[in-house]
Amino acid sequence: MLTTLDSSTPEGLRPVLQPLPTLTSAGTRLLEAAGELFYNRGVRAVGVDLIAETAGTTKKTLYDRFGSKDALVALYLLDRAHQWRSFLLERIELPASARSPEHSVLAVFDALETWMGGQLRGCAFVNAYAELGEGDHPAVPVIRAEKAWMRALFDDLTGDSAVGAHVHLIYEGTLVVLTAGGDASGMVEARRAVRIALASNG
């Protein structure tokens, strides 16, 4: 089920991810350990033994808290999505009418550049999807929901769904470039592409 941010949130940004569950201290340690390991080594490469050992718990505790490794992967991405969303919303001004569309959209790319500067392996969602693909893994809906929220954000910031779709494609392409290529010029080109997209629809 989807929930909402609050009554002041623009209508276009109402769809959000599921809320994070309340965890015990052991559950929190497991999620933190899993998050670091999944991000740095890859989802498929990390086993539950290593996660439990890193968290200072047991496999039984892991299964008791999360049920399966797949569920833990999904929660890792859900937690990361909430972190990114909080980070981003602190850095852009809503509603979009408070600033020009260009200013608002470029603020997202500024936030992305700051965020990605501390992410040595690029985008966690791009990496996870590359490993998990289109199957029935419980993490896939989390990835899709995060992408849908970003699309809704750009629709709101630009005030036009067609322009929002264009800018969202630029954003997603930028994530792939920064993840796969590590090309520092990617952000420069992304900002230029955003300005062109907004000007052509102005």
TrEMBL record:
> InterPro entries per the record?
Homeodomain-like_sf, HTH-type_TetR-like_transc_reg, HTH_TetR, Tet_transcr_reg_TetR-rel_C_sf
Its name, as the record gives it, is TetR/AcrR family transcriptional regulator
The reply on keyword Glycoprotein is: no
- GO molecular-function annotation terms? DNA-binding transcription factor activity; transcription cis-regulatory region binding
Query: Which stretches hold the DNA-binding feature?
Result: 47-66
Which SUPFAM superfamilies does the UniProt entry name for this protein?
A: Homeodomain-like (SSF46689), Tetracyclin repressor-like, C-terminal domain (SSF48498)
Name the UniProt key words of this record, in alphabetical order.
DNA-binding
Q: Which domain of life is it from?
A: Bacteria
**One Pfam family of this protein, by short name?**
TetR_N
Domain HTH tetR-type: start-end pairs: 24-84
Entry keyword annotation includes DNA-binding: yes
Q: Which residues form a coiled coil?
A: none
